[in-house]
Structure formats: structure tokens, C-alpha cells
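Protein 1 of 2
SEQ + STRUCT:
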Amino acid sequence: MNRFLAFVMLCLITGFASMAAAASAAPRDSVVQAGVGLTNLHLGETYGEVEHALGKPTEDLYGFVFVYQLPHNAELNFRVTDNKVVAINLKGNAKTAFTTELGAKFGMTRKQVEALYGPPEAQAVNTLFYYQRGISFLFNETGRMSELNVFRQSHL
């Protein structure tokens, strides 16, 4: 089975849709690894490798940001520099099934995320930055996690 079909099945089994065909996909594939990426989308991969794994993106923004629209108003996008994935962004809500390796989920409060990750290395009004881990979390106007970014770890 190709990687795109596995990704689609993953989305189905983890709550993006409910189809019986998804029963054989492994829910662990919805884990986001800070500084690494997703099970089937990693930092450092080429655009061709991503397209082979996930299929053609829904949108191509300026030739370096590529977007996949997901069910429940969720979105996966990645940025490419020198034909390599350098950043991954997930936008979601409480129905979005992606979870970080430490257990952070969309819809959590800032306090809940900090309980899992500790004090941030930097923060803005609605964002917690964990540069040494390679992840940041953005919170919406209701204080719930609505976006996360994965990037290479930076040792300050």
C-alpha cells in the first residue's frame, strides 16, 4: 500500500472521517514529533518525497508553502527551502486528532501545554516557543491550542 493511502486511512481512523476502510490504519501515526515531523512527513524530506507519500497538495502558495486541507477545518502545510521541508504547520481544533509525543492536543489550554512541556524558552501574546525541542504552540482568542509548528531544534 502506498504512503498516501496509509495517510488517508490514518486520517479516517483518527477522527477525520468515519469509514470502515480505515480500520487497519494505526492511530499512532497521528503523533507529532517535535523537531522531526509526522510519521509520514519529516523535516528534511524533498518536495517529491512528500508528494509521493501524501499526494498533490490542495494549494501551492508561492512555490514554497504547500497546503493540504483536512476534514473538520483542519489544515496541514509545510514550507520548502532548497527542495527540503524546513517547517511543518498544523492548524486544528478539538476535533483534530493529531497529538504530540508528550500528549499535547488541539483544544488544550496554554496551562495544559505548559504542564506537559514546561516553561517556554520564549513566548508571545498567543504563542509558546520551545526552540530546543523544535516546536511552538499557538492559542486562539478563547485560549485553546489551535496551531502548532514543527521545525529543527535550535540550541540558543
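Protein 2 of 2
SEQ + STRUCT:
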Amino acid sequence: MAEAVFSCQFHRAMGPVRSTIFIIDDDASVRRALCRVMTSAGLECQSFDSAEEFMATPHPAVAGCIVADMTMPGMSGLDLKPLLDAAGISYPLILLTAHDNEEMRAAARNAGATAYFRKPVDTQALLDTIKWAFKPPPLADVF
């Protein structure tokens, strides 16, 4: 299955470098389950129980994507995007919530999230979205 997520692998002079998916959720069972999904798809996974823990951890210059819960004690996934921008961390941000409503969807859009999912998450849709988030923009969008 590792070969299924082609666009999440990058090639540098020394060979392929796999992307790291950062899972941020205060629920340990969600973190474990999502990391299992990521590793079974051939992706590296690191998990954090809070946005504060994620921000306090050094992030080497690797390709990455953040999957974060929207509502956690302390800093929420929504609060994360401006801090990422200020720190120069440009990972795509995918938000998850158990409280799906129009206000939450609008908040995710306004926060600049790449995508938004309701829990429980359709894991194939999540993997497809992560794959999509790593694709370079079409040339028409670049120029």
C-alpha cells in the first residue's frame, strides 16, 4: 500500500523523502487510529495531544501536513493557522470536528484550512485529501 500515495513522496538529491503527517488531537484513541492509517498508507506520522505541544516541537524542513481537531482544550485547531503562518510553517492544515454545523464549516474556511472533515472520519477520503494537498498547483494557477 505504500506505493498508493505517490504524491506524498518527494525526491531530493539523496533520494526519496517521505512526507510527515502531524496528527493533533486531545483524544489518544483518535491519534492512534489516524497514525495507524497513515503508516499503513506508507506515510510517516507524528502525533501530539495539543496544538501547544506541536508548536513547542522543532519542525525540520520536511514536507508535511497537519491533521488537527478543531476543538481541544487550550489552543484549538482553528487557533493554529495564524501561529503556523507567523512561524513560517506552511504545512496544509486539515481540520476535524465532531460538531459539524455551518458555523464550524465557515470557521474552518475562514481559518484557511485546506479541508474539513466530520468525525468519525472517512479514512480513504482523508488520505485522498492529504494526497491532493501535496500536489503542486497547475501551471495556470502559478502564472
